[in-house]
Amino acid sequence: MYFVEITLFVAGLVLLFTGYRKNHRNLLLCAAITLFLSAGLGSMVDGFSEGYRESRASR
After folding, report:
1. So where does this one cross the membrane (predicted)?
2. Which residues of 8-35 are buried (b: 16+ CB within 10 A; e: fewer)?
3. Whole-angstrom distance between the N-terminal and C-terminal Cα of the chain?
4. Percentages helix, strand, coil for the chain, rounded to the nearest 5?
5. How far apart are alpha carbons 40 and 35 in whole angstroms?
6. Tens digit of each residue's pLDDT (9 = 90 or more) over 24-34
């Protein structure tokens, strides 16, 4: 999971620098979304898996 977060972070930084240099707002938007996912992906996956386990245990 850490490799995915690091990869998303690096990809977000590349998109950020590229979008800033070329003045492309769409690239900057993609960079913001990618950086958001890199920061929150681990928590989202942990919460989803915990909820899934709880729902399976309650049956």
Report:
1. 31-49
2. bbebbeebbeebeeeeeeebbebbeebb
3. 29
4. 90, 0, 10
5. 9
6. 999 999 999 99
